[in-house]
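Reopening: structure tokens for the magnesium ion complex, inputs below.
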Amino acid sequence: MITGGFALPIRHVNLIIIDIPLHVFQKGHVISRDGERTFVMIKPDGVQRGSVGDILQRFERKGFKLVAMKFVYPPADIWDEHYSDHVGKPFFPSLKTFMTSGPVCVTIWQGAHAVDTCRNMVGDTDPWDASPGSIRGDFCVNIGRNVCMASENPEKAAKQMDLWFTKEDLINYELCTKNVLYGEEYE
Ligand SMILES: Nc1nc2c(ncn2[C@@H]2O[C@H](COP(=O)(O)OP(=O)(O)OP(=O)(O)O)[C@@H](O)[C@H]2O)c(=O)[nH]1
Ligand SMILES: [Mg+2]
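Re-run output (same inputs, fresh job):
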């Protein structure tokens, strides 16, 4: 029952009905089979614990397309840019030291809603909060050793992909499972 509020000035509303498929409005944009790209890194602890394969397999199993991958010893100063939001925070010096301590595996994945989905698959920053089933929920116990990262939004994804990869590093190929993965709801 409506108990309060105000009357809408209906006479001023021009109701135009256009037949737009529902999926156009999901997450505010058209769902494309090509989707979007995001950046995922296996951190030094993930590498040292022999978890690179297990972690990457999760993104493959989900149906995302691997478009770039590098195994690198990162230069110390890259973290000032990569984690620019955290420079000056109390944990930044130890974060930078740890992230420079060993090789990391950096990747780019592509698919529908890749940014949000990969982030959810990685899980909450503190493994204490991370749900079982997420990577951090399943692989680690310490916020400073949380094995894996994924970009938090499309802007960060674009910045991080540019920081770690050149255009030439991206491999252009068709995923042969694309049609069976996406079906007819995707353009
Ligand atoms: N020791 C400590 N480390 C922190 C804390 N907050 C963040 N970190 C570390 O800094 C990293 C970056 O922090 P955020 O960007 O806020 O968290 P996030 O996006 O889940 O993590 P990334 O995927 O690594 O970017 C985290 O993954 C942690 O390893 C903190 O309060 N204490
Ligand atoms: Mg982050």
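Residues 23-174 form a domain with the Alpha-Beta Plaits fold (CATH 3.30.70.141). The pocket of magnesium ion (ligand 2) is lined by residues 152 (CB under 6 Å). Marking as resolved unless the reporter disagrees.
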